[in-house]
Specification:
Elements (H helix, E strand, L loop, with lengths): L1 H10 L4 E4 L5 H4 L13 E4 L3 H13 L5 E4 L18 E4 L6 E4 L4 E4 L5 H9 L3 E2 L10 H7 L6 H4 L6 E7 L5 E4 L5 H10 L6 E8 L1 E2 L5 E8 L5 H14 L4 E8 L2 E8 L4 H14 L8 E4 L2 H12 L21 E9 L5 H11 L6 E7 L20 E9 L10 H20 L22 H6 L3 H11 L15
Parallel strand pairs: 2-4, 3-4
Antiparallel strand pairs: 1-2, 5-6, 6-10, 7-11, 8-9, 8-10, 12-14, 12-15, 13-14, 13-17, 16-18, 17-18
Length: 483
């Protein structure tokens, strides 16, 4: 290990890097998720594409056998640190976070460590949006390859489908432009594989859209002890199915209640107010006053992030920074695509489970709109044409007598006792998990991990992997295998 560190320092003078034994090693590898406190071989922070090339070439010359890519640091399984049993040299992209917006072309060009919130804020300053996830402090480099499903999903689609081009450093140290005409196979694979298996993205160009001029934020709540849980879920789902696509809802069960939140994305106050009236007329009467606020587009995203994501203290999209361990917590997420609406019988089984839902457990359903999706063969996302993207999460924070050192054991208990049972209830109705919420435990029930995520796309992904990374330098437990 010390020999590799010495060789890399000699080859890359002036570049920030940290190895085990260095005084800054623990801060360099720090993570907010207590499940992923891994110890990679070292971490190197290139500042531009040329330095990424130099890192790759020097790492190979020094005998490094595993590279991992870290941009936002939000891999649920810690794959950005190499995953469990890591021996990775982490190419930490944290210093590569530039962004430029072209209002005339309606494009955003960004580096991989740019955080979602900064992208939203910069695009909105020009009256634009690029649909992406809800968590403001997630990096674009991982999110753009995984899907990027969030608050805008039903109205505008996902982030991956808005990628126009990538600049990529492959493991031979060469720079390649990947789009529909150059290295089209790599472009196809990068969009949806989500695992950092093919190369290091150093720049991306994204298609932007006009931001809505008269949006609103809404939240309705029904407390379990004051309603018929199953019947309320049936009625709320029916509204979500029937409402116009300018309503983008997320249905959540947590904290002892059913919660329907989301956004109305309209261009006039008249359109917005009509949808609000329709919503109030058709939804069951909430057990507390509904929250409906006309806001601008960026304010809607900030409000939803504050209320709905695990990093709920983030309220200013333009000022977010990548998380380290300043807010440690336990997080485990499993997610799956549901092609059909939830049946009444499934809802009633789910309602019974909700009576024993643990504090910190959360189930959510994001409404999908197939009309704004790319075709299934356009990229590596296998699950298209679905009704819901379901998510099953456990988030546990210290406090109320629970110390940081107890988070791992307590989170595992809550996950295993409730989240896993609930995920398995819905699994027979799913067409596959979501790689953006990477989940090694998908294989714990006798299912093939890679078939689950990639299905018929897997043979093509393996072929592309063999072409661009034949020595499997970019690998971890969830990366695309060579065979």
């Amino acid at each position: 290990m010390s020999d590799v560190a010495a060789r890399l320092r000699a080859a890359l003078p002036g570049m920030t890097m940290s190895f085990a034994g260095d005084p800054d090693y623990d801060s360099a590898r720090a993570t907010w998720n207590v499940r992923t406190r891994f110890r990679p071989l070292g971490l190197v922070q290139p500042r531009n594409t040329a330095e990424v090339q130099a890192v790759v070439r020097s790492a190979r010359a020094a005998g490094v056998t595993q590279l991992a890519i870290r941009s936002g640091g939000h891999s649920i399984e810690g794959n950005g640190l190499g995953g469990p049993d890591t021996e990775a040299l982490v190419i930490d992209m944290v210093q590569m976070r530039a962004i430029s917006v072209d209002p005339a072309a309606k494009t955003v060009t960004a580096e991989p460590a740019l955080l979602t919130g900064i992208m939203y804020a910069q695009a909105f300053a020009h009256g634009l949006l690029v649909p992406a996830g809800d968590c403001l402090n997630v990096g674009l480099g991982g999110q753009v390859t995984a899907g990027g499903y969030g608050r805008c999903l039903r109205t505008y689609g996902n982030l991956t489908d808005h990628a126009l081009e990538f600049e990529v450093v492959t493991v031979d140290g060469e720079v390649r432009i990947a789009n529909t005409s150059e290295h089209a196979d790599l472009f196809w694979a990068l969009r949806g594989s989500g695992t950092g298996s093919f190369g290091i993205i150093t720049r991306m160009t994204l298609q932007a859209l006009d931001a809505p001029r008269a949006p609103a934020n809404f939240t309705f709540r029904w407390h379990f002890d004051q309603v018929d849980i199953a019947q309320t879920l049936i009625e709320v789902q029916q509204y979500c199915l029937d409402s116009p696509t300018t309503v983008s809802p997320i249905l959540v069960t947590w904290r002892g209640m059913i919660e329907l939140s989301g956004a109305i994305f309209t261009d006039t106050a008249e359109q917005r107010d009509a949808l609000i009236a329709d919503m109030q007329a058709k939804l069951p009467t909430p057990t507390e006053p509904a929250e409906i606020e006309p806001l601008n587009f960026l304010q809607v995203l900030e409000r939803q992030s504050e209320e709905q994501t695990s990093a709920h203290w983030l309220v200013d999209a333009s000022a977010v920074t990548r998380e380290a361990d300043n807010h440690p917590r336990y997080q485990k997420i499993r997610a799956g695509f549901l092609p059909d609406p939830l049946s009444e019988s499934l809802i009633r089984e789910f309602a019974d489970l909700l009576k024993t839902q643990q504090p910190g457990n959360r189930v959510q359903f994001c409404r999908i709109n197939p009309a704004v999706e790319a075709p299934v063969d356009a990229c590596a996302i296998k699950s298209r044409g679905c009704t819901w993207l379901s998510g099953f999460g456990t988030d546990v924070e210290p406090g109320n007598g629970l110390a940081v050192e107890d988070l791992l054991a307590e989170g595992d208990r809550r996950y295993r006792e409730w989240e896993d049972q609930t995920y398995e209830l819905f699994h027979p109705y799913s067409v596959g998990p979501y790689i953006g919420d990477d989940d090694l435990m998908e294989a714990d029930h006798g299912r093939d991990l890679f078939e689950a995520y990639y299905g018929p796309h897997l043979p093509r992904l393996k072929e592309i992997k063999r072409k661009y990374d034949p020595e499997n330098l970019l690998h971890h437990k969830m990366s695309i295998p060579l065979d």
